[in-house]
Amino acid sequence: MAQNEIIALVTGVGKETGLGFAVSQALMSQGMTVYVTARTQGKAEKVASLLNAAGMGTAVPMALDISDANDISVAATKIDAEYGKLDVLINNAAMTSPYGELAASADMEEARAVFDATLFGTWAMCQAMLPLLRKSDAGRIVNVSSGAGSHGDPVFGLTTGNQMGTSYAVSKAALNALTVRLALEEAESTVKINAVCPGFTATFEGGEAMGARPPHESATGVLWAATLPEDGPTAGFFRDGEVLAW
Ligand SMILES: NC(=O)c1ccc[n+]([C@@H]2O[C@H](COP(=O)([O-])OP(=O)(O)OC[C@H]3O[C@@H](n4cnc5c(N)ncnc54)[C@H](OP(=O)(O)O)[C@@H]3O)[C@@H](O)[C@H]2O)c1
Prior knowledge:
This protein is of the alpha/beta class. The protein has helices at 19-29, 41-53, 69-82, 108-133, 166-185, 215-226, and strands at 7-10, 33-38, 58-63, 88-91, 140-144, 192-196, 237-239, 242-243.
């Protein structure tokens, strides 16, 4: 390991078009070594080779399903053996629920699956990686959340009567709450934990035509939270570096 090598891990980097890919690229542009993780080794290797072709930083492919406790444990053991620390954890992976899904009629099995990945998978990742993050001089966790889980977002928020799937929105609200609890528990350590909404991002077909912005623009606010200075905030919820209402 090179002296001062900064090690990051991003979850859910299965697609070149996804936010996880753009965030990995942004971290690599800062010279970081990034474990780019996806549900299968094949997907992780494909995106890592695309990222490495750019010649900035290093992408290391890793299979990681955040709903699988064994995968998480293997990942933590590997990072510990290879670097003995983790500097940045980006919890980007999430499951969405169908557009228009209603609280009164949601399929409870589907809703549980959304919570299993978005909330419990992220929670388990935080638990497994915190011991490694505490070994960093400046450990940072970014929980990629959504305005859908905000009471104050005037467009996508919980109180706006939009068509965002209920289990997606409620799981992101729970993720925000988890972020606060974890961050306060780490108040005496050097680890900062924040939730970040990337904004409406064109990671799906037709997204740009609907007004969504390119992933590299949304990645900027995630990079900001991943590289906060010592006097930067913790236990917050942000979009593009600005406070977002809970
Ligand atoms: N796009 C937006 O407008 C927007 C707005 C607000 C917030 N966000 C948030 O931004 C993040 C990235 O979203 P995106 O737009 O890039 O969506 P996406 O393309 O659907 O990315 C989500 C990724 O998470 C992965 N994933 C799902 N369950 C997983 C699990 N159990 N283990 C590991 N990986 C898992 C998916 O893997 P597979 O490829 O294997 O399915 C996928 O690659 C999400 O947290 C999302 O909620 C997005």
